Structure formats: structure tokens, C-alpha cells
Amino acid sequence: MEDASTGYKVSLSFILASLLFVSSIVIITPLVSYIHKVDEASVRIVILDGLIYRQGEDFPYTGHILDTLENKIIKYDVVNGLKHGEFSITTIEGEISVWGFVEQNKNIGTWKYFYDDGALESTGSFSEDKPQGKWIWYYKNGKVKSEGNYLAGKPEGRWIKFDEQGHTNLIIYYFQGEIVNEVKLDNQGSV
Q1: Which helix (H) or strand (E) holds 180?
Q2: Domain containing 9: what range?
Q3: What integer is the mean pLDDT of 117-130?
Q4: Is residue 189 part of a domain?
Q5: How many domains are contained in the chain?
Q6: What's the whole-model pTM score?
Q7: Is there a domain that residue 18 lies in?
Q8: Rounded to an integer, what is the distance from CA 146 to the centroid of its chain?
Q9: Is there a domain that residue 121 lies in?
Q10: What are the φ/ψ torsions at residue 40 (nearest 5 degrees)?
Q11: From CA 50, how far away is CA 138, in angstroms rounded?
Q12: Residue 148 lies in a domain
């Protein structure tokens, strides 16, 4: 996903890594994982045709999944073999990395991404697994880095990028995901 206010991908490695990471967890769960049930017993699961099954069973799994991947703890619920409900990724130390909602294996509603130190990195909404509506990216100091709107997964309208002191330094206008105008500003807000 791109932060469209810059005209190029801002925090490209972080945003892409986050989205690929979340998508791999939400959509392409590893073929074999562990489910930790309320009674703490773990069983093997398998993914067949996009549905989660308990190994050896013919009907899709329903229950809670608690798993680890790359020293992160992943939690989500499964209903009739599909990821559904609250989704989170936390560090072993308990810091939230990603938080949002999934419905039938698709990201929906508000999602939040966090820096390693727990500071909010970005927030926005998904509809049918595509960014939708206002998204905001933050510097580690809490000031807004950039903001803009997505329409069906594409940047739309006015996007603004700020420096770390909060001064506007770039305004980009999008129409159907394409840049139609770009205005660069100096620290005093002049063109």
C-alpha cells in the first residue's frame, strides 16, 4: 500500500512488509499451524481450498487460533474455516504490532499499525480487503507524517505530507489513483 501524499511509496518497506505479513496470516495461513484451544491442547490444522480444518476432520474448523511467526504472536478467531473477528499481532513482550478486524478472510474496518516501540505508525480502514477512506501515517514523535483518502484501494483526492515539525511540504491531488497535480512547499508554506 502506498502513502500517496509523497508521489512515491513512503515507508515502502514497512507498509509492504506489514501488508504482506498480515495478508499471509489472514489469507495464506501456513499449511500447518497450531491451534491453542481453551483447554490449552494444541492440534494440527491444515488449509484446503482456503478453509482451515483440524487435521483428520472433514468439516471446517471453528475456534480461536494463537500462533507464532517470526517472534510475533498472532491471534484470531475462525468461523466455519474462515478467519473472522478481531485480529492482532503482538511482540513476545506484549507490544501491539498490528490490530484490526477480518471477515471471511478479508481485512475490514479500522486497522492500526505500530512501530516496534509501540508508537502508532498508521491507521485507516479497509473494505473488502482494500484500503478505503482516510489513512494517516505518523512519525515516531506522534506528529502526522502524511494523510489522504483511498477509494477502492486507490489514492483519491488531496494527499498532504508533513515534515517532522508538522509543516506541510507536499500536496498531491489524485483522480482514480493517478496524480493530476503536485505542489511542493518550503518550510514557510510557500510554493
Answers
A1: strand 178-184
A2: 4-184
A3: 95
A4: no
A5: 1
A6: 0.75
A7: yes
A8: 16
A9: yes
A10: 70, 0
A11: 34
A12: yes
